[in-house]
């Protein structure tokens, strides 16, 4: 991967975070302003990316939707990381019984596809942005638990941990100073890439009408409406999806670059 | 007519010049050895002869020919006709040079399929003949096995069988004996000598002058992409003309280097007399899953003394070292450190037993700088926070480094520097014994010489004792006072290193000592 | 013998996972807020009499203690009875069975297309010229990052409404399978292609590959006979990804292309809070996962015979 690509992806991410925090910097339009006279208008100087079926500015809705979409991705991975991480650490550091219980449970969890598990959570708890985020997060817990456990075990068996014991460091110190940071770091890096997939899963829920409800702007739910107007308004179906893809690409590129760096290979 | 003619060969990868004007010829039935340390360009030179220099390489030469054929203009198809059929290539370490998922016989058959019109059945018969000819017993059985089911020696033989399957004029062997036990090493060298006797030309690449001494007719010494000295083996090894060759020869630890310095010509200071007993092991035994790794091992180690443990892979030497370190609990037997029972738990004794590993890089936390590595070791020794940096500099100076290395990460240090940092860390708690587990096996011979000299200097200065694990008998002979010879988990012979190596009593020790590669002229 | 014992262990592990999955579905039903009897009778607006509710409770065993219900739950699942749909008032297995063929058709078409694309692309571009590798890497990245539902919209815009090459909705002969299958396959091909190419590039640097080249083998022979087999292992271990991508993708694709199938059944069930159907589909996905995993373990042994000893 070349350096320029990584910088570009980084710049996109910075812009996305800015758009999530201060959307008004990127557009002067109101994402909720209905204009019954100007529905489904193609891109123009006034509406750079056209308007939707209620005459709302598509660009404004994409920009204002950034916050929700990023929240879905990052929030879900945060949930998975915290709970999966704790379980994985417990499995990697604990005794055989603890390890076995956690791992067998995660085996069961892994048997369910992410989206399907999320659908179960939503059937029980109902839709909405927060529930969609939690649902995707919960669905990812088993794989993160596995990952963290594998890392913890690898670090525990590493030569530098043995060297620390040979120096005479106590077990809690070795775990705190060497095992934890070295086990968690690569998982954090992988989680960056995970944000992309979680974002896609979250917007898929919205697309199915089970995530963020209208009229709140969110990329997936915009596409959910847009698919009814494919034959008449290509811009409506194109741009929100392009936003998702661009975000996922950027997150992936930055994540992979971080991974290469953390493995000591330069990008 | 010479079989191979190389004139002014240059190879570059990007901006890096790896080979800078190498010229040599190989006659029919002759063996030339290219010798050098890592990065000298010897392997790249060899690979260029079969057109496998590597991705992104720029090759140029005034002449590059094989049996009269100009290789400089050769296209991929032409190279393919040459490879395997007229030039055989043996890579080092057969465990990774044979496809781990394919049967050994298939790998050899591949050559026949590519270069001959033999039928399937005829090919298989030929594979068995070839395996038999390189000394593989039960060739029919072995041909149907996967590489990991074969011992290191058999794998290397199979690889040689694949290289000669096309009946080539020239066989190139890149580090053919590296990673093999010393007795197996000798057998493989004999096998290669047999190929030469059949009239084939041989190009042997090695970092080990002693290994090529018994095989090569001529030796070319490479350094930084150039041949610095080139001549008949006896002449190069006996009366080296170039300063680098002399340094390289002096750096090889062996019987005659004992009591001298390897890395420079300075006279060695006298050794200390051994002091009181610091480690006493009695009746150590350890099994893993029902297999006894160590049986009834006992030894004593005194202050300022170096006790070597030699043995081939699987002999139990590493398990013994781990028991001494307190990292593995023995099933039977006891270890006393400075007269007190030692289980690895007692924090007061923990400081006394330190370790230096074969791979220093893996033994440092990848996030740590040298300063942090040493500070942690000093904290265990109870050095107050404010004094750690100053003490770290002292330690670094003791191992020939300096304050400028403090803020570096081990990844950015050279192999020799890393091992120096590892030694400094081991010294930080002022131990009475350091277990050295193959501490120089991964190093080039000149760096190895520096580290071995350093270990002796440190011992003289601090009186620390070493438990020195190595498969390299030359190294052991050079640094150790006494030696334990291990085989199948038992100590088969022990005593002063001079006695054991000069007048070995046990048949196994005799075999080991006979297999040591020696510099014929030295 | 070893192989048999290995299969035995894997089977046992699979049964364990399924038992866990069944237990999980029980827990979900048991701890879902609201009265299941009311859901069975017909949702919030039905306002059934207490007598009716009591009768339903008795009929469905909802008045019995939890362990008895749990035992019945497991017993039924063991006999292929996944319960009755609240919405359709027919057995869940029947509802799923009616939809299965369409989804299997879609999933198989997509899996084969995705795998083929990935293998061909990776074999053709690994360790080739810089620009070619860059191009392949870029294509994989875009494909893997594109959400199925958007890809579908783009495909529909271009090929159905723009060029009018393929129908926009499903169930109209083979032509109507092309776009949904492609839509499901491309993201899979992106992910698999990336994994495969990285693995290939690593393998092609191995000494045994240099050895094979030094024997005079052609580049194609080296790739096919030596490298591919090694590079396949990481693909094979991605069972979770495969099953997840196909099931999750089917849900989205079927909705988008208004195709019949398990995915649409599921979405409708989620919207109607038809828990038995949702859990039935989830159980089915776990079953598929376990079965595929078993096949994969065997494939794994076939690819890497060294594992027979480890097993």
Could you walk me through the main structural features you see in this protein, from its secondary elements to its overall organization?
The complex is a heterotrimer of chains A (267), B (522) and C (311). Chain A has 267 residues and is mainly alpha-helical. In chain A, 72% of the residues lie in helices and 0% in strands. In chain A, helix 7 (171-207) packs parallel to helix 8. Chain B is α/β, with parallel strands linked by helices and 522 residues long. Chain B has 3 domains: 1-84 and 171-179 and 202-250, 3-Layer(aba) Sandwich (Rossmann fold), CATH 3.40.50.300; 87-167, no CATH class; 277-369 and 430-521, P-loop containing nucleotide triphosphate hydrolases (Rossmann fold, 3-Layer(aba) Sandwich). Helix content of chain B is 36%, strand content 25%. In chain B, the strands form 4 sheets. Chain B has a 6-stranded mixed beta sheet with strand order 7-8-9-3-10-11, with helices on both faces. In chain B, a hairpin with a 2-residue loop joins strand 15 (332-337) and strand 16 (340-341). Chain B is globular. The two termini of chain B are 32 Å apart. Chain C is flat and about 85 Å long. Chain C is built from 14 helices and no strands. The chains are: A mainly alpha (267), B alpha/beta (522), C mainly alpha (311). Chains in contact: A-B, A-C, B-C. At the A-C interface, helix 3, helix 4, helix 7, helix 8 and helix 9 of A face helix 1, helix 6, helix 7, helix 11 and helix 12 of C.
């Amino acid at each position: 991967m070349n350096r320029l690509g990584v910088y570009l992806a980084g710049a996109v991410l910075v812009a996305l975070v800015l758009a999530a925090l201060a959307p008004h910097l990127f557009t002067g339009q109101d994402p909720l302003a209905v204009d019954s006279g100007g529905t489904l208008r193609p891109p123009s100087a006034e509406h750079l990316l056209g308007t939707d079926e209620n005459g709302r500015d598509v660009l404004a809705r994409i920009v204002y939707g950034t916050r929700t979409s990023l929240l879905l991705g990052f929030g879900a991975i945060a949930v998975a990381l915290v709970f999966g991480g704790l379980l994985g650490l417990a499995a990697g550091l604990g005794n055989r019984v603890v390890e076995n219980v956690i791992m067998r449970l995660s085996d069961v969890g892994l048997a369910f596809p992410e989206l399907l598990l999320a659908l179960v959570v939503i059937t029980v708890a109902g839709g909405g942005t927060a529930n969609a985020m939690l649902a995707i997060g919960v669905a990812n817990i088993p794989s993160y638990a596995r990952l963290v456990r594998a890392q913890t075990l690898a670090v525990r068996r590493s030569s530098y941990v043995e060297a620390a014991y040979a120096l005479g460091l106590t077990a809690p110190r070795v775990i705190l100073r060497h095992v934890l940071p070295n086990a968690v770091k690569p998982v954090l890096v992988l989680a960056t890439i995970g944000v992309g997939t979680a974002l896609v899963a979250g917007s898929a829920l919205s697309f199915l009408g089970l995530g963020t409800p209208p009229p709140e702007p969110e990329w997936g739910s915009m596409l959910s409406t847009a698919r009814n107007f494919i034959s008449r308004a290509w811009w409506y179906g194109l741009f929100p999806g392009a936003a998702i893809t661009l975000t996922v690409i950027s997150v992936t590129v930055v994540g992979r670059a971080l991974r290469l760096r953390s493995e000591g290979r330069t990008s | 007519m010479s079989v191979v003619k190389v004139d002014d060969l240059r190879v570059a990868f990007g901006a890096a010049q790896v080979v800078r004007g190498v010229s040599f010829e190989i006659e029919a039935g002759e063996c030339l050895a290219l010798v050098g340390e890592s990065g000298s360009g010897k392997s790249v030179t060899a690979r260029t002869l079969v057109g496998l220099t590597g991705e992104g390489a720029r090759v140029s030469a005034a002449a590059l020919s094989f049996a009269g054929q100009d290789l400089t203009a050769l296209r991929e198809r032409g190279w393919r006709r040459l490879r395997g059929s007229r030039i055989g290539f043996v890579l080092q370490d057969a465990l990774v040079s044979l496809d781990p998922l394919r049967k050994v016989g298939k790998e050899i058959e591949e050559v026949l399929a590519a270069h001959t019109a033999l039928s399937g059945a005829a090919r298989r018969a030929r594979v068995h003949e070839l395996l038999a000819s390189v000394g593989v017993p039960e060739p029919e059985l072995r041909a149907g096995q996967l590489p990991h089911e074969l011992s290191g020696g058999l794998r290397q033989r199979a690889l040689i069988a694949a290289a000669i399957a096309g009946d080539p004029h020239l066989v190139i062997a890149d580090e053919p004996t590296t990673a093999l036990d010393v007795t197996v090493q000798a057998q493989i060298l004999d096998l290669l000598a047999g190929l030469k006797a059949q009239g084939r030309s041989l190009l042997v690449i090695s970092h080990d002058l002693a290994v090529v001494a018994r095989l090569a007719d001529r030796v070319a010494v490479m350094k930084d992409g150039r041949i610095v000295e080139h001549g008949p083996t006896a002449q190069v090894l006996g009366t080296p003309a170039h300063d680098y060759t002399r340094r390289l020869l002096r750096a090889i630890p062996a019987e005659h280097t004992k009591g001298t310095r390897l890395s420079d010509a300075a006279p060695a200071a006298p050794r200390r007399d051994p002091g009181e007993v610091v480690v006493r092991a009695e009746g150590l035994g350890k099994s893993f899953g029902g297999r006894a790794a160590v049986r009834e091992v006992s030894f004593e180690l005194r202050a300022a003394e170096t006790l070597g443990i030699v043995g081939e892979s699987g002999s139990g030497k590493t398990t013994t070292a781990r028991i001494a370190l307190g990292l593995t609990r023995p099933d039977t037997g006891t270890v006393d450190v400075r007269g007190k029972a030692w289980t690895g738990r007692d924090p007061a004794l923990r400081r006394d037993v330190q370790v230096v590993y074969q791979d220093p890089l893996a033994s440092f936390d990848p996030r740590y700088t040298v300063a942090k590595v040493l500070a942690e070791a000093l904290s265990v020794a109870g050095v107050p926070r404010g004094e750690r940096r100053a003490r770290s500099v002292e330690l670094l100076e003791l191992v020939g480094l300096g304050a400028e290395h403090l803020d570096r990460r081990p990844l950015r240090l050279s192999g020799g520097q890393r091992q120096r940092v590892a030694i400094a860390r081991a010294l930080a708690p002022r131990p009475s014994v350091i277990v050295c587990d193959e501490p120089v096996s991964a190093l080039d011979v000149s760096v190895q010489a520096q580290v071995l000299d350093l270990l002796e200097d440190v011992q003289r200065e601090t009186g620390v004792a070493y438990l020195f694990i190595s498969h390299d008998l030359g190294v052991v002979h050079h640094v150790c006072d006494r030696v334990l010879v291990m085989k199948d988990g038992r100590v088969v012979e022990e005593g002063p290193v001079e006695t054991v190596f000069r007048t070995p009593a046990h048949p196994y020790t005799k075999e080991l000592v006979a297999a040591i590669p020696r510099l014929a002229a030295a | 013998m070893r192989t048999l014992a290995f299969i035995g262990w894997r089977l046992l592990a699979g049964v364990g996972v399924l038992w866990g999955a069944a237990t999980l579905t029980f827990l979900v039903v048991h701890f879902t807020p609201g009265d299941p009897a009311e859901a069975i009778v017909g949702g919030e607006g039905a306002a059934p009499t207490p007598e009716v509710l009591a009768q339903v409770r008795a009929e469905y065993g909802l008045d019995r203690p939890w362990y008895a219900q749990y035992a019945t739950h497991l017993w039924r699942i063991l006999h292929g009875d996944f319960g009755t749909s609240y919405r359709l008032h027919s057995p869940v297995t029947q509802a799923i069975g009616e939809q299965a063929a369409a989804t299997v058709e879609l999933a198989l078409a997509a899996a084969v297309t995705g795998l083929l694309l990935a293998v061909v692309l990776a074999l053709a571009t690994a360790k080739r010229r810089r620009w070619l590798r860059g191009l392949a890497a870029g294509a994989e990245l875009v494909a893997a990052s594109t959400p199925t539902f958007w890809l579908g919209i783009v495909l529909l815009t271009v090929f159905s409404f723009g060029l009018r090459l393929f129908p926009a909705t499903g169930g109209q002969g083979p032509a109507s399978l092309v776009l949904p299958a492609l839509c499901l396959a491309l993201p899979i091909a992106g992910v698999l292609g990336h994994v495969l190419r990285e693995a290939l590039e690593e393998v092609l640097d191995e000494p045994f590959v240099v050895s094979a080249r030094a024997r005079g083998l052609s580049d194609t022979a080296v790739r096919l006979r030596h490298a591919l087999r090694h590079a396949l292992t990481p693909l094979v271990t991605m069972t979770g990804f495969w099953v997840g991508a196909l099931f999750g993708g089917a849900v989205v694709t079927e909705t988008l292309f208004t195709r019949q199938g398990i995915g649409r059944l599921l979405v409708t069930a989620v919207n109607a809070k038809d828990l038995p159907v949702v859990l039935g589909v989830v159980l089915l996905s776990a079953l598929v996962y376990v079965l595929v995993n078993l096949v994969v373990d065997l494939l794994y042994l076939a690819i890497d015979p060294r594992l027979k000893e480890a097993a």
